[in-house]
Amino acid sequence: MALSLSPAARNHLKNLLVCFSLANLCFLRRWYDLEHLKERAMDYYRSAPASPTLLEATILDALLLTAVFWLAWRWVERDPTPVKWKLAQCGFLLISIYPLESVRLYWNQEGARHDVGSNVSILAIEAVLGVGIVMAIAGNARIVRAARRTALLLTLLVPALVLDFGVSGLNAEPASAYAAKSPLPLLPARPGPARRVVWVLFDELDQRLVFDLREPQVALPELDRLRAGSFVANHALQTAGWTTQALPSLLSGTIFSEVQLEGAADIRVYPPNSSGGIEWRDTPNVFQKARALGVNAALVGWHHPYCRVIGDSLVRCMDLVSGTPTAALIRETAASSEGLWRTMRSLFELEILGIGEIFSSRGVPATETIRDQFVQHHHQEQYFKIRDRAYTDAADPHLDFVFLHFPVPHPFGIYDRRRASFDLSPSLGYADNVALVDRTV
To answer: Residues 359, 363, 368, 370: is their CA dihedral positive or negative?
Structure first.
């Protein structure tokens, strides 16, 4: 027997679906983040399988906002007056403008350049909704009805997203893909005098700024002392423009022209003048060559998942993947550390700040400031962990060759050079991190 609903029940159901659709659209920017996070390349920057916290928090927040919209609508329906109807209609159109404008700002902030066509299209729709507000105040609800039908139709977006993310979850890489490779056994000590090499790489250390063009008042005593007692090769050339490409080139001894991220432990590298790429783990590296000489090699590194890519070329390995190369991955990393309830609250705070961004003329949006603060704290925590393990391995007499990849002076600033402290503030920058390099040495 077919299920039939009374006209009143159908009307209530439609209103509920419109409230749900509108609430979900308010979190459209978060759905963009989640869609970006489905890319297999993102697994390379994760330390474990993707956390579902951000997705769960987004869904629950949309349901909570649905309840708020529904209660507000029921308040209008219980005692309808012309003022209430106009208030509800104008509010509905204003709220409909928000997801459009937030997505437009998102595209402009995250994209390499502004897409004029997309900006004009969205602004045109917003203008129509703005005209609808004026018409609603004048008693004409034609645009309100059209917007309501559109919102009702966009309810179908939710099951489509659920299906999309469900299929993506089934195709996700297993936890075993994030496991470090088994290390090599420790070789016995070689006869003769001990010879040890410690290769230290400070990410984004610029020779010109630190040595060639340094301000006279900037003191870097430890770097100067090390330089004075060392062989110095000062014709330095940049290996690559970004860490993901530079480190495979350095450790393999080949300047790769391109790299492609393909999974948790899969990074394809392209040798120069080669149309076909190969997996980085299948290319010779400096640690394999050291092993052939009977050397015990170890690595402590940042950004790359070294241990699950080339960990079987080492006797000891410790890495901390960046986890923050994109805005979306920053949100996921933050959600994983904050937990579900705090993430739900954070997402609502971001939505409120997003409303302020629309009307703000400030140079740096408040949402970006919050994001930067999280990355700064995360970056400092990773520095401490890498520093402590680096000091241990560098002093271990059982290790003949140690490679240390530090996350400084790479932004964000995590050290106050004037106060010689690790107190964080937005004013810290590259020069402070260079001072931290000197302190680390």
So the answer is: negative
Q: Mean pLDDT in the chain?
A: 89
Q: What per-residue confidence (pLDDT) applies to 364? A: 59
For 314-333, how does the pLDDT look when each residue is reduced to its tens digit (9 = 90+)?
999 999 998 788 888 999 99
Which residue in 303, 304, 335, 401 sits closest to 37, CA to CA?
Answer: 335
**In angstroms, rounded to a whole number, what is the distance separating the alpha carbons of residues 297 and 299?**
7
Question: Tell me, what amino acid is at 133?
Answer: I
Q: Are 328 and 58 in contact (CB under 8 A)?
A: no
How far apart CA 288 and CA 315 sit, in angstroms, is 11
Backbone angles phi, psi at 268, to 5 degrees: -90, 130
Question: What is the three-class DSSP state of 266?
Answer: strand
% of the chain beyond a pLDDT of 90: 57
Q: Which residues of 83-121 are buried (b: 16+ CB within 10 A; e: fewer)?
A: eebbebbbbbbebbbbbbbbbbbbbeeeeeeeeeeeeee
- What is the amino acid identity at position 342? R
Question: d(Cα 97, Cα 138) in Å, to the nearest integer?
Answer: 19
* CA dist., res. 202 & res. 394, Å (int): 15
**412 and 389 in contact (C-beta within 8 Å)?**
no
The distance in angstroms from the start CA to the end CA of the chain is 79
The SS3 assignment for 102 reads helix
What strand order describes the sheet that includes 401-406? 197-202, 401-406, 297-303, 316-321
Please tell me the number of Cα atoms within 13 Å of 413 on its side-chain side: 18
- Answer left, alpha or beta for residue 6, where phi above 0 means left and psi between -120 and 50 means alpha: beta
Contact yes or no for 239/255 (Cβ under 8 A): yes
What confidence tier does 1 reach under pLDDT thresholds 50, 70, 90? very low
- DSSP character at residue 280: G
d(CA 185, CA 340): 41
Average pLDDT over residues 15-31: 91
Instruction: Report residue 321 CA to chain centroid gap.
Output: 12
pLDDT tens, 257-283? 999 999 999 999 998 887 788 999 999
How many of the other CB atoms lie within 10 Å of CB of 342?
Answer: 14
The pLDDT tens digits for 163-188 are 888 788 778 899 999 999 999 999 98
Q: What are phi and psi of 303, to 5 degrees?
A: 80, -55
DSSP label at 267?
Answer: E
Neighbours of 51 (CB within 10 A): 17
